[in-house]
Structure formats: C-alpha cells, structure tokens
C-alpha cells in the first residue's frame, strides 16, 4: 500500500508541474513515505533525513508522509528540524497545499483522519507504464491485534466505493494494465453497494472486475481469516481471472498466543479455511505472515507454530521477530522474549518456510503455464514475469516484450525463481 500511496503522491506532484528525479541531490522536494509496522522500519526515516543534508549544509524541502508521520506527528520536527511537512496516510491529498505553505517558510503538519475523503479528492490516475498495478479498495483496521500499530496509524476500516474502484480499474486497463492487485490492510473486509444498490463483499467486487475486457489477472492482499467468507472462497473456484494465490496470515500456531494477540481465530479454524480454499481451487498457493517471540511465547507455543506451518504447507511466507510498538497492548505485556531466543526461533521457522517454498517451486517443474512479463532480466535478452502462483519466472524473451502474456514450460526451479521455455 505504501507503493500505491507513493505513486498517488507522485502523480499529484506531477500534476502540479513537478518532475520526478531519481537523484535526491537534484530534488527541490523529497517525500519520505514511511512505515511504522516494526521498529526497524520506523527508525529508517531518521537516518534517511540525515542523509538528505547536502555538502553545503542545505537540504531540500522534506516531507515525511505515511504511518511514522501519523504516529509521531509534530515530534518528528523536534527530532529532525529539517523536516518541513508532516502528513499522515489519510491526509496526503493535501500534500500540494502543504508544500506551498512550506515554500513560504512555515511548517505544515496534518495528521487528520477524515474518513474516506482523500479518494474523492485525488486526481484520476494517468496511464500506468506497466502491465501490473495496485489498486487500494479498503484501508484501515478494526481488528486491534495486540501487537499491531495499524489500527492507530491507518485508522478505522473503510471501504472505497464500488463505482470509484471499477472506474479506476477500467482506466488502468485502458492504459495497458493486465493484472490488478486489490489492496487493503483487511482487503477481504471490503463491503459496499454495487451500482444496483445491492450489498456486496469482496467476491462481488472481484466478479465485477472480472468482466472488464483486457483485465486478465486479479489478486488481492492482505486478508484476515475471519473475513474469509464462503462467497470469496467460492470465487477462487469460479472466477478464472482470480489468480490461484492467497496471502492469509496466521501469525502463530499456538491458540493461547493467538488469544493473547487478539486474533479471534484458532489454529484449527485457520486450517479449516485453508482446506475449504484448497477444495475450491486445487493447487492454490498459500502464503502467510508469522511473528516469533510474541510476549509469553514458550517453546511449546513456538513448536505449535512449526506444526501449523507443516500442516498448512506454504508456497511462500513472511516471518518477523516481534517488535514492541509504542501504544499497543503487547508492548507492556510481561514476559517479553529475549532477542537470542527470537533469533533462534526465526532461523528455525525460516528454514522450514524456505524448504516449503523450494518444494512448491519444484512441484511446478514440467508444468505448462502462463507468464505475464513484467521486467527485463539481468542477462541480455532475458525477461522476467510472474506465474499464476506469484513465482518469478525467467525466460529467454526473443520476440517478446514487457506486458506480453506468454505460455511457457517450466524447465528449472530454484528456491526463489523458476525458468521457463517459450511454447
Ligand atoms: N512486530 C512484528 N511483526 C509485526 N507485524 C505487525 N506488527 C508487528 C510487530 N509489532 C507483522 C504481522 C503482519 C505483517 C504485515 O507485519 O505479521 O501480518
Ligand atoms: Fe494489524 Fe492485520 Fe491485526 Fe489489523 S488484522 S491489527 S492490520 S495485524
């Protein structure tokens, strides 16, 4: 979502007559779009601000956007006086006017959370020079997992309007986009009325987008197990353009830890969802997120996480050491886990997840499948695209270009990517 937000901010500044540069030394304005999810991500902004100072002691106009801006607000300008603008993720439609304020030598800070207003104000998207695009449909979170800052930084769950989403998708496809990934912190909590006034969930929206000629692939991320409706599960079996890939974080395999995390699902209910999803779409790739070292996590709790990974069998997954976030309930829980224990657990978990990823990749060897070419590879003539299961596939791209959908036979499989031969 930060990529999407960054693109939208860039487009707004383009519309103001600014021109993007890849060299920070050439920039009059630098926008740092920041993440607060873990401490490491949040700290990065301060070292980045320091690095923007030029050899003559001057610095460009600096705007800090995103979740660190939301969480720390004016505190940022105390810690980093060279910052001119602080703008939260729900207020970035005001960035151009805030930069005008900064140009007059005044600081501009806006961490308001007006519900759903930025989407009504943002200019419509220009043509995207690429075959794949993100599209935010839902933002915010009401789940309040006890470790997580998102409900505080992104605010309450809101769904964008059906018509606005369909229009944005059509405009993307008109510009040449073939694959859209629908985004939301709780994307499967999306709900709204369709153009006939009927209540719809994410599955209804996906079925509507599936009708757009030229939109060949639909994905969505990230989902919460509790919002995995039967309708959405059925869509995986029925909507051909909905890719066979589901990112469904579980975080832990231990029920006491899941309860302490306020996840409101159990290990068993999570596995039961996966079973239904796999019944609907055999061979679907399942991905997840994990946190090791949540306060109070015993050896036995961690073994339960290893066990759920064995049972779920992931194609790919993300795993993190627990990072205490200021203001969240877990940050002040007793029994914080020592760093060495977290390190050791993360290593073991990642070894298992890597093995599953390699096995999943190896199982695609010999398959004939379609690849959407997204970028050039490192070797001359090489092109790289994604399989339906979100694996990177390298091909020798003679006569093809980025944006082509090609049929390939998978001829080799490594831990992180595959090679295909054009059919
Ligand atoms: N510490 C570590 N990982 C976290 N995540 C969210 N909050 C924290 C935290 N405080 C992870 C979760 C989530 C992913 C986006 O980031 O696994 O699904
Ligand atoms: Fe954070 Fe996701 Fe839990 Fe919401 S559901 S609080 S975004 S981890």
TrEMBL record:
GO terms for cellular component: cytosol
HAMAP family: tRNA_metthiotr_MiaB
UniProt domain TRAM: residue ranges: 362-423
Oligomer status and interactors: Monomer.
Sequence ranges assigned to domain MTTase N-terminal in this UniProt record: 1-104
Family stated for the protein in its record: Belongs to the methylthiotransferase family. MiaB subfamily.
Protein name (database record): tRNA-2-methylthio-N(6)-dimethylallyladenosine synthase
This protein's UniProt keywords: 4Fe-4S, Cytoplasm, Iron, Iron-sulfur, Metal-binding, S-adenosyl-L-methionine, Transferase, tRNA processing
Function: Catalyzes the methylthiolation of N6-(dimethylallyl)adenosine (i(6)A), leading to the formation of 2-methylthio-N6-(dimethylallyl)adenosine (ms(2)i(6)A) at position 37 in tRNAs that read codons beginning with uridine.
Annotated EC: 2.8.4.3
Cofactor note: Binds 2 [4Fe-4S] clusters. One cluster is coordinated with 3 cysteines and an exchangeable S-adenosyl-L-methionine.
Gene Ontology MF terms in the entry: 4 iron, 4 sulfur cluster binding; metal ion binding; tRNA-2-methylthio-N(6)-dimethylallyladenosine(37) synthase activity
Pfam family, one: TRAM
InterPro entries per the UniProt record, alphabetical: Elp3/MiaA/NifB-like_rSAM, Methylthiotransferase, Methylthiotransferase_CS, Methylthiotransferase_N, Methylthiotransferase_N_sf, MiaB_methiolase, rSAM, rSAM_horseshoe
Domain Radical SAM core: 127-359
Cofactor(s) named in the record: [4Fe-4S] cluster
Principal localisation: cytoplasm
Catalyses which reaction(s): N(6)-dimethylallyladenosine(37) in tRNA + (sulfur carrier)-SH + AH2 + 2 S-adenosyl-L-methionine = 2-methylsulfanyl-N(6)-dimethylallyladenosine(37) in tRNA + (sulfur carrier)-H + 5'-deoxyadenosine + L-methionine + A + S-adenosyl-L-homocysteine + 2 H(+)
Protein origin, superkingdom: Bacteria
